[in-house]
Amino acid sequence: MSAGAGRPQAQYAPPPWLRNPHVQTVLGSSPWRRRAAAAVLARTGAVTREHLLDGGDGVRLHGLHSAVPGVEPRGLALLMHGWEGSAESSYMQLAAAQLLERGFEVFRLNFRDHGGTHHLNPDIFHSCRIDEVVHAARDVADRFGARPMVAAGYSLGGNFALRVALRARQAGLPLARVAAVCPVLDPAGTMQRMEQGPWFYMHYFERKWRSSLARKRALFPDRVGFDRKVLRLRMRELTDWLVRNHTSLGSLDRYFDGYSVAGDRLAALPVPAHILMAADDPVIPLDAFHQVALPEHARLEILPWGGHCAFLDGTGAAGYAERWVAERLAGG
């Protein structure tokens, strides 16, 4: 399926100084943007409350529900963050603000071991833990009434959002629409892209993951035991250690295949879906998007600029991606 099939190509043209993918990506996850995002969300007047969700089989997941007092919501939006992000990531807060302004109530989900939730479950997060996310999504839907539900995610969260959509009917989720920004389609290809790309992306994710694993070990030393040598492993070797010691998958190839949505795996999407990708994304390889098979009610939009999940346009903290998410989930 070609990019933007069935709809005009999205309009996004950042100023020249924002057309470098590394500038986009670094600014998109900068402390400045996180501070600005919190202020933008606060200005909506929404009341935000914490919730613990049932992930099934004793799993507990955490999230934040936001709604504007006195406004009857038009729907419920479930947002999912990227790997080593959280419900408080700048893009999560900015997307929430955009959705709140369009009349939605919003639930920002923390995956296991993200957003300071390492203490909730003894076992380590990995990307094949889709069942607990689907179960938690059903819990969110049950708690907040029989309203139309939509979902969106960024990067790995986009991958999870698409997999939740694939399972929506079977799980009884009242999901009406899904959107994904720079989602991981092919995990094996993404690993290779990161290994071959600029060193600072791999360093960033390795540093954050090592810190997360060390925190998990401190909380559950009997369940999560490893020595200093493990934390010094590079990304591929550390992932292989995780697969062999904390999953039943047995190999890295089976693990990557377990959460891949590349090729024809999204062809069975039961709900309207929107995917936004930047051709210059330095983390997610573009070729998987040219090869993905999508149903007629799905739309793929590939823009020349945007970096990884940033799409800043120089007009403020909220970039094009946050407006895109809100418009697509609202049916625009």
What does this structure look like?
This protein has 332 residues and is α/β, with parallel strands linked by helices. It contains 13 helices and eight strands. An eight-stranded mixed β-sheet has the order 1-2-4-3-5-6-7-8. Helix 2 (31-43) packs parallel to helix 3. The longest helix has 21 residues, at 199-219.
Keywords:
16% strand; alpha/beta
In a nutshell, what does this entry contain?
The chain has helices at residues 21-28, 31-43, 90-101, 130-143, 156-166, 168-171, 187-196, 199-219, 228-231, 235-246, 252-259, 287-291, 320-329; strands spanning 47-54, 60-67, 75-80, 104-110, 149-154, 175-181, 273-278, 298-303.
Produce the secondary structure layout.
Elements lengths: L20 H8 L2 H13 L3 E8 L5 E8 L7 E6 L9 H12 L2 E7 L19 H14 L5 E6 L1 H11 L1 H4 L3 E7 L5 H10 L2 H21 L8 H4 L3 H12 L5 H8 L13 E6 L8 H5 L6 E6 L16 H10 L3
Parallel strand pairs: 3-4, 3-5, 5-6, 6-7, 7-8
Antiparallel strand pairs: 1-2, 2-4
Order of helices and strands: HHEEEHEHEHHEHHHHHEHEH
Terminal CA distance: 20 Å
Tally of strands: 8
Per DSSP, what share of the residues sits in E-state strands of 2 or more residues? 15-25%
Instruction: Round the Cα radius of gyration to an integer and report it.
Output: 19 Å
Give the fraction of residues assigned to helices.
25-40%
Q: Strand order across the biggest sheet?
A: 1-2-4-3-5-6-7-8
Mean pLDDT: 95
Query: Class by helix and strand content?
Result: alpha/beta
Uncertain stretches = 1-9
